[in-house]
């Protein structure tokens, strides 16, 4: 068995990836930039400021924005996002996730969060999942966001577990890249068009079964 599972939050544990998309889309519309689902794939897993940079580059390629302007825009996006997550409760845990966490516990497999979000701990609390986690990596714990491996390597070293004994679970291309660079077994939630680099891929969390995942991990 692996010794640790490191979970991404948004789009893996709960569908806040959709709320991030809606909040960015609203902000972008207000400054006349179109953000569609296709473009949004490039934003998944990317931290707040880097996401904003990508959106501004799409709309105003080459134009320089002051840090004050950028902070104001990022803050506005986060206000929209906070409104959207206000009513999150345990019913918003994606199918299969709590079963997987329970199986980790039964097998004494450590559990960590590997999220780029500043809102990660608040969301885990709202979902009432915090007590499952041995360690939480959020935006405050890393210098280099995904696709840099730092998010996942930070979690593994805090748990004292070698990367080769870790499984990382992600819905974002940047996240899969981060797990692979960390030298861990990568599990993708989504489709092969975006997540072809995943070691193991399932369409959605309902299809993420502990036994199947372990069978594939053992053959790696
Ligand atoms: C996660 C999401 C991204 C989001 C980032 C920062 O990685 O996948 O879509 O931009 O967190 O979230 P925050 O809550 O700090 O703005
Ligand atoms: Mg995600």
UniProtKB/TrEMBL annotation:
Catalytic activity: beta-D-glucose 1-phosphate = beta-D-glucose 6-phosphate
GO CC, alphabetical: cytoplasm
Compartments where found: Cytoplasm
Molecular function terms from GO: beta-phosphoglucomutase activity; magnesium ion binding
Organism in which the protein naturally occurs: Planococcus antarcticus DSM 14505
Cofactor(s) this protein requires: Mg(2+)
GO biological process: carbohydrate metabolic process
Family assignment from sequence similarity: Belongs to the HAD-like hydrolase superfamily. CbbY/CbbZ/Gph/YieH family.
Keyword Magnesium on entry: yes
Name by which UniProt lists this protein: Beta-phosphoglucomutase
Binding site for substrate: 8-10, 24, 43-48, 51, 77, 115-119, 146
Keywords: Carbohydrate metabolism, Cytoplasm, Isomerase, Magnesium, Metal-binding, Phosphoprotein
Residue numbers annotated as active site: 8 (nucleophile), 10 (proton donor/acceptor)
Residues carrying the site annotation Important for catalytic activity and assists the phosphoryl transfer reaction to Asp8 by balancing charge and orienting the reacting groups: 115, 146
UniProt key word Glycosyltransferase: no
EC code: 5.4.2.6
The organism's place on the tree of life at top rank: Bacteria
Cofactor note as given: Binds 2 magnesium ions per subunit.
Binding positions for Mg(2+) per the UniProt entry: 8, 10, 170-171
Principal subcellular localisation of the protein: cytoplasm
Pfam families linked to this entry: Hydrolase (PF00702)
SUPFAM superfamilies: HAD-like
């Amino acid at each position: 068995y692996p010794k640790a599972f490191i979970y991404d939050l948004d789009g893996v544990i709960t569908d806040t990836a959709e709320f991030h998309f809606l909040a960015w889309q609203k902000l972008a519309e207000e400054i006349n930039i179109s953000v569609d689902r296709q473009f949004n794939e490039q934003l998944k897993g990317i931290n707040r400021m880097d996401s904003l940079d990508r959106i501004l580059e799409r709309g105003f390629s080459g134009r320089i924005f002051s840090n004050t302007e950028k902070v104001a825009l990022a803050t506005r996006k986060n206000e929209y996002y906070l409104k959207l997550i206000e009513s999150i409760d345990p019913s918003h845990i994606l199918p299969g996730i709590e079963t997987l966490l329970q199986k980790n516990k039964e097998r004494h497999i450590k559990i960590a969060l590997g999220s780029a979000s500043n809102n990660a701990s608040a969301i885990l609390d709202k979902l009432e999942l915090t007590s499952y986690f041995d360690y939480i990596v959020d935006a405050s714990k890393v210098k280099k966001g995904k696709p840099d491996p730092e998010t996942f390597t930070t979690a593994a070293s805090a748990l004292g577990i070698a990367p080769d004994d870790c499984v990382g679970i992600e819905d974002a291309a940047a996240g899969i890249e981060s797990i692979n660079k960390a030298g861990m077994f990568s599990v993708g939630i989504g489709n092969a068009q975006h997540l072809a680099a995943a070691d193991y891929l399932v369409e959605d969390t309902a299809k993420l079964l502990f036994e199947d995942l372990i069978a594939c991990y053992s053959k790696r």
